[in-house]
Amino acid sequence: MLPWWALWTACGLAALFVALGAWRGLRGWWLRGLSLAVVLLALAGPSVLREDRAPLSDIVIALVDDSASQRLGDRADQTAAALARLQAQVAALPDTELRVIRLADAPDNGGTQAMTALSQALAEEPRDRIAGAILISDGQVHDMGVAPALPAPLHLLQTGRAADWDRRLIVRNAPAFAIVGEDARLTLRVEDQGRTPEGLGATARLTLALGAEAPLTVDVPVGQDMELPVRLPHGGMNVLQISTAGVEGEVTDRNNAQIVQINGVRDRLRVLLVSGEPHAGERVWRNLLKSDPSVDLVHFTILRPPQKQDATPVDELSLIAFPTRELFMEKINDFDLIIFDRYRLQGILPSLYLENVRDYVRKGGTVLVAAGPEFAGVESLARSPLGEIMPVKPTGRVLDQGFRPGLTDLGQRHPVTEGLENPQDWGRWFREIDMTQTGGEALMKGIDGRPLLVLDRVGEGRIAILGSDQLWLWGRGYEGGGPQLELTRRLAHWMLKEPELEEEALTATAAGQTVTIQRRTLGAAPPPVSVTGPGGDTVDLTLEEQAPGRFAVTWPAPELGLYRMQQGDLAEVFAVGPAAPREFEETIATPRLLEPVMDPVGGGAVRLEDHPDFTLREVGEGRVAAGRGWLGITPRGAFVAQDVTVAPLLPGWLWLVLAAAFALGAWLREGRSTRRAA
Fold first, then answer.
1. 387 vs 381: CA distance, rounded Å
2. pLDDT, tens digit, for every residue of 290-339?
3. Cβ neighbours of residue 373 closer than 8 Å, sequence gap 6 or more
4. Distance between CA 353 and CA 327 in Å, rounded?
5. Cα–Cα dist 647/650, whole Å
6. Looking at residue 22, what DSSP letter applies?
7. Nearest-angstrom CA–CA distance, 17 and 32
């Protein structure tokens, strides 16, 4: 009836009056105080609130782990039986509901995100109705850092077996980049988890395969970190497959393999360029190689042949002597590429040196011959020991006429020349060496379809023959020029065995779980590719032609893990996500991860192997809620108010009667005491 400040002021005045009466010795001061209190209480307007309440049921949240690790052994059957029993147990409790939430593998290799799902479930339900939460899982949860504050006990119905054990391969450290030809070191560990059987042995058989090379098998100790030296064979991406053989009785072999991808970079690329004589196109190769700072170029130009006679003193003919013996006998294997640019047999390089070059190619080296008119004569390199590995033979004719270089049918499919600019727009050349192809692959053609650029593999090495010295015209932009830089770059990379320029290649790239498989070939349409999944299931995929010599198919991978694909003689591996997904990093069932969350709220774990017939009980709030074979939930007693009635505590006339009665009592008491005193 009054503002609070007025009411509190009245209370202060009333207290002052009562204190004054007591100080003056009035015998009815306390009755006066009661009278004032009744008046003040009436002014405060006390009321009685009556609610019509409807009780609400308690909610139990069941989180069912359906992730990949729950499909190991008989865990899926244990989970199904536990859920059925839990549903029956909750149904037998009065006013109790069960909310079932199923957990699949989280995207992006997130594993089991049980705490995230529990947080979302708690946000969707009134917290005062949550009587408990129960997780049916192996206990391997990967988001414990976001565990919510719980209003009720959390329990674990643990799947798995006490006798479970598993062997896994761990890559502790692997470099992202390494120098080609030098050792890179990986740190590995083979580890056994769980109840390892007796007599298993202290070593494991480890298999390593780098790209298409033959696998290497070694025995390694179990439970110890070890360093593995790896030498990359080529630049670009190198795929290292590491696996340990599965052992009978282990939970899974899905974590027995790993893929390590290392990008190979060349420290310094050593190239030897030998120019037989100065000419207009000599700088084509020099400019290409010098533009790359990672290339160490050794360039020699023969300015004066030995048979040339004049009066010039010998000590004035050259600033640097040509170290032929050192280059072609002692250090020839140090070069990654040797280029002969219009070189002729002049006696500078004896036959023995050219035999070394031939053997260098057969052992893995690479040689590029840029031919000029001398290639058609008696001083041709084709007449030397190097001619034994050449895929062409000169006819002795030099065709001096204008022509427009073009691509052969094979050249339109070969990675060195496919996709180059439109050949119809290329500028003309004016000299071609007539050659007869005896092997290899002709990628470019010249006058009347004669072979112009021929590539071949010799032993472990490679050789290329360019039958013209007119490539420099493209660089000068004559008649529009042509793809000089791109062609020479690709040619050099093919010579250096870069994987992206291999003629026959089977590759796969994964974006999420969508895999694109590509096949590059110079032949006809390839057969279907056979893909074997992490679980051993095999599927055959038919590739469709995307461009000349390129076939591809897009395929949704059903699960994460390591896949193997086979097509004829080509076999490769690829990983969708990691080779061993997060679900298989730790496979032994345990309550250890969940204990920091369960213990503060009185929860616990029950192993389903020991107690498949567990029971559910109601326990008081704050008490231990788990025991041997039983789990407890806390009844919440929540309700909803359906109707609210508000009425005054006393009617107004009764407040008045009470106040008057106390005032009258004080007057009578004080009046009687006054008469006695008189």
1. 6
2. 777 777 888 887 766 555 556 666 566 555 666 778 888 888 888 889 99
3. 398, 431, 433, 469
4. 9
5. 9
6. H
7. 9
What's the rounded Cα separation, in Å, for the pair 494 and 464? 10
Nearest to 351 by CA among 378, 328, 319: 328
- For the stretch 476-502, pLDDT in tens is 888 888 998 889 888 888 888 887 888
User: If you write DSSP's letter for every residue of 120-171 in order, what string do you get?
Assistant: HHHHHS-GGGEEEEEEEE-S--S-GGGPPPPSS-EEEEE-S-TT-EEEEEEE
Buried b (16+ CB within 10 A) or exposed e, 86-105: beebbeebeebbbeebebeb
pLDDT tens-digit map of 538-582: 999 999 988 888 899 999 998 877 888 988 888 888 888 777 788
**H/E element, 486:** helix 484-495
Report whether 215 contacts 240 (CB < 8 A).
no
Give the CA count within 13 Å in the CB-facing half-sphere of 627. Answer: 11
146-175 exposure pattern, b = at least 16 Cβ within 10 A, e = fewer: ebbebbbbbbbbbbbbeebbbbbbebeebe
pLDDT cut 90: percent of the chain above it: 39
Number of C-beta neighbours around residue 334 at 10 A: 11
Contact 109, 581 (CB under 8 A): yes
- Token pair, residue 83, equals 């859920």
Six-digit token string for 560 = 């994460």
- Residue 358 phi, psi (nearest 5): -60, -45
Q: Which residues contact 258 (CB under 8 A, 6 or more apart)?
A: 169, 170, 171, 241, 242, 243, 579, 580
- DSSP secondary structure string, 414-451? STTTTT-S-GGGPPPB--EEEEEE-SSEEEEE-GGG-E
Mean pLDDT of the chain: 87
Residue recorded with tokens 């600033």: 319
Other Cβ atoms closer than 10 A to 214: 6
Provide the residue count of the chain.
Answer: 678
Question: Is the model's pLDDT at 148 over the cut of 70?
Answer: yes
Say if residue 676 is exposed, middle or buried (CB neighbours under 10 Å; 0-12, 13-18, 19+). exposed
Cα atoms in the Cβ-side hemisphere of radius 13 Å centred on 447: 17
Contact 264, 493 (CB under 8 A): no
| Other CB atoms within 10 Å distance of the CB of residue 423 | 17
- Determine which helix (DSSP H) or strand (DSSP E) holds 285, and give its type and residue range: helix 282-290
Whether the CB-CB separation of 582 and 142 falls below 8 Å is answered with: yes
Residue in 559, 447, 555 with CA at minimum distance from that of residue 69: 559
- 229-261 per-residue burial string, b: 16 or more CB within 10 A, e: under 16: ebebebbeebbbbbbbeebeebbbbbbbbbbbe
Q: Which helix (H) or strand (E) holds 547?
A: strand 544-547
Kindly give the residue spans of alpha helices, DSSP state H, lying in 25-54.
Answer: 29-44
